[in-house]
Amino acid sequence: MIIARDLTKTYGSKVAVDGVSFTVEPGRVTGxxxxxxxxxxxxxxxxxxxxxxxxGTVTVGGRNYADVPAPLRSxxxxxxxxxxHPGRSARNHLRWLAASNGIPAKRVDEVLDLVGLTDVxxxxxGRFSLGMGQRLGIAVALLGDPPVVVLDEPVNGLDPEGxxxxxxxxxxxxxxxxxxxxxxxxxxxMALTADHLIVIGRGRVLADCSMAxxxxxxxxxxxxxxxxxxxxxxxxxxxxxxxxxxxxSGVDVELRVQGLDxxxxxxxxxxxxxxxxxxxxxxxxxxxxxxxxxxxSVEYAAGPVATAGAAR
Length: 312
Ligand SMILES: Nc1ncnc2c1ncn2[C@@H]1O[C@H](COP(=O)(O)OP(=O)(O)OP(=O)(O)O)[C@@H](O)[C@H]1O
Fold this sequence. Notes:
Blueprint: E1 2-11, E2 14-24, E3 28-33, H1 40-47, E4 55-60, H2 71-74, E5 75-78, H3 90-100, H4 106-114, H5 130-142, E6 148-152, H6 160-175, E7 179-183, H7 187-193, E8 196-201, E9 204-210, H8 211-218, E10 221-226, H9 230-239, E11 243-247, E12 254-258, H10 262-271, E13 278-283, H11 286-294
Parallel strand pairs: 3-7, 3-8, 5-6, 6-7
Antiparallel strand pairs: 1-2, 1-4, 8-9, 10-12, 10-13, 11-12
Domain ABC transporter: 2-227
Family: Belongs to the ABC transporter superfamily.
Keywords: ATP-binding, Nucleotide-binding, Transport
């Protein structure tokens, strides 16, 4: 597992990571989320010894990365584009890494196959597309068959098939009992991939909980009620102590009701003899929950987009 304790990194006066503590457990995919500049990459870099903490510690499998005898066999990482020798082939790049880490050469062909690069293994990596480079980076991460895998934006540059492949791979690695930490900006993808979430904003941990808990805590849900007798239904529901918001107008009018489940609301409205045309539980997405939680910790927020209608 990965354990961070009071981990802090400053660059001059900039506090990139501000006393974060968390544990990344084996056997599940942990999503690492945060707005741009939140400190995700810096934290991941410290995990694998590419940056030194200003204070605090982060250990992988109980050791500091610097003390790990065979790093590629202990933790595999895909971080921002690695320094690849552009003239070297993918196969030779992996062979060189395998030899310098005491990994048998046959593992090179296994990982090439695993990431789908066998057919281009002898091409120079300088000619690789972004997606092929990502696949090669993942091959490097898996070369030492490590128990801990850290992937920073692994789906960056991948097409839909590649994105699905990374999702399945991450889940398979976790299913084998490995510790898997994945960062991504693609919330819809993260919702399908991660079991657990660590969310950071401005260098601090904002949430550390299961995906389901995160959505329950931070995503709004309401029951959409449509009835031809909107005003009467609204009055009845308010009288029953529920929160009721009216949205839209004319035939598109709906009530958004909070405070009772759909069945209870249906019983109330139907019991009063009012016809129901719709009764739907609307749950907001991981993206909505993430935006709600991190709204105040966005470093580079854009203003609202001016539209022609806004001036009217
Ligand atoms: N080498 C560096 N020197 C100075 N500041 C840095 C350095 N590396 C990161 N930072 C700053 O530290 C903060 C955290 O950056 P980091 O790259 O870890 O964030 P991130 O969450 O990975 O962001 P993104 O989602 O944009 O990749 C940012 O404000 C960034 O500008």
